[in-house]
Amino acid sequence: MDIIEINSKVKIDGFEFYGQIEQEKFCSNCKFNLVYYDDFDEYFCPKCNSWVGSKCSDPNCKYCSNRPEKPLPHK
User: Fold this and answer.
1) pTM above 0.85?
2) Sequence ranges of the domains in the chain
3) Is residue 75 pLDDT above 80, yes or no?
């Protein structure tokens, strides 16, 4: 997996978004560094391709209402 952070953007295998790689937060399943995804105000594990938190119950939430099932569309 090719993952880099440059100028407040993270690029994972060619997929780019605003966020950051967390140096002190790790996936509870695989221990890989978590990544913060600005558009959805949530952390995810790029190795497991799963969100850390669940969506909230507000149907009008600007973060959760549009959040995809998986953070990385190409995995």
Assistant:
1) yes
2) 1-75
3) no
